[in-house]
């Protein structure tokens, strides 16, 4: 069994365990998730068959693991099977699947660790699609690479590229969204542009003709934010209204009985929308009062509603009013609140919810900031093993223990003892993440472990 030593000193207030006030950014692919903590460290979890976690292996991880040791990561995004990130010095990095050149490093070889793309230091915005990628630099120029079979790179042809190529000559690009084979972007003047595949009307231009160059949609100049997934797009205008177009089967975005939306169509009449994210056949959004809402397909629990069912119209998930960041994978949802705590729900077949299990969740489950995802944790003068575990957690101690307490991720006490300190029977514990508190003459130490 591999042993990894890590010294952790935790200061707790009252009797509460450490609340993970550290998550800053989150992005989800089809079966993997990447995130940045407030200290600038990079973390990933979930499916890893082609290195999309960036930890140098191809092993799946059901709990967050740190990617390298750098503390200067600024932005991160997950494509379906690849990942991209920007460091604080403006450099661009990528890893994971690269069959179509979506890593942009001049090869078609998969990468299991972050590799820098070129030598530019002025990258500011990134997005990963299914098999293609985009980046905007500080000059407002838009660059694309990867698969281009429908013209989704927007460079006037349908040839794949394994290096970044500039999209036109404009220098006023503001944001970009990448789906399966189509792309949507906003300019600084508030205009909306699309290109790529259009067989479901996902370009929003009223036709089903694919395009290999950006085309403006309508004449409106009040578009504020966009998000794209597979064959549909969503956007918010400056007046707080929410819009969608593309594949709508079975009326999962706009409940108008139409399978396809060929032009931007308003969702409801609410004018309080602030942020929108889209998965495969579902959407999640934040309102200006920081509440979180979801609708569409909930077949994997991704709506966070407590059920595996379709929901329409947009429905508030819970009563909390402190949400600040959301992300969607194909069938999973993630949210970070204002305290930096991370929550997830939905499909979890590859452990991409990050809760230490591979069990789907229909309600938000908290992901601890202390996520190590290793077989054994050694923190002198104590060692706990194995981790994750199914039947027993064993404790090796070099100093006298006075008490042990186990809490679940919400802080609820599920076990405590003042006599037997050699092992803990966890057979009756539900699958998930737990905190073991060990009390001794040196104070209290806290260990995270996973019950499989």
From TrEMBL:
<protein>
    <submittedName>
        <fullName>T9SS type A sorting domain-containing protein</fullName>
    </submittedName>
</protein>
<dbReference type="InterPro" id="IPR051553">
    <property type="entry name" value="Ran_GTPase-activating"/>
</dbReference>
<dbReference type="Pfam" id="PF00415">
    <property type="entry name" value="RCC1"/>
</dbReference>
<dbReference type="InterPro" id="IPR000408">
    <property type="entry name" value="Reg_chr_condens"/>
</dbReference>
<keyword id="KW-0732">Signal</keyword>
<dbReference type="Pfam" id="PF18962">
    <property type="entry name" value="Por_Secre_tail"/>
</dbReference>
<dbReference type="GO" id="GO:0005737">
    <property type="term" value="C:cytoplasm"/>
</dbReference>
<feature type="domain" description="Secretion system C-terminal sorting">
    <location>
        <begin position="384"/>
        <end position="445"/>
    </location>
</feature>
<feature type="signal peptide">
    <location>
        <begin position="1"/>
        <end position="20"/>
    </location>
</feature>
<keyword id="KW-0677">Repeat</keyword>
<dbReference type="GO" id="GO:0005085">
    <property type="term" value="F:guanyl-nucleotide exchange factor activity"/>
</dbReference>
<feature type="domain" description="RCC1-like">
    <location>
        <begin position="126"/>
        <end position="367"/>
    </location>
</feature>
<keyword id="KW-0344">Guanine-nucleotide releasing factor</keyword>
<dbReference type="InterPro" id="IPR058923">
    <property type="entry name" value="RCC1-like_dom"/>
</dbReference>
<dbReference type="InterPro" id="IPR026444">
    <property type="entry name" value="Secre_tail"/>
</dbReference>
<dbReference type="Pfam" id="PF25390">
    <property type="entry name" value="WD40_RLD"/>
</dbReference>
<dbReference type="InterPro" id="IPR009091">
    <property type="entry name" value="RCC1/BLIP-II"/>
</dbReference>
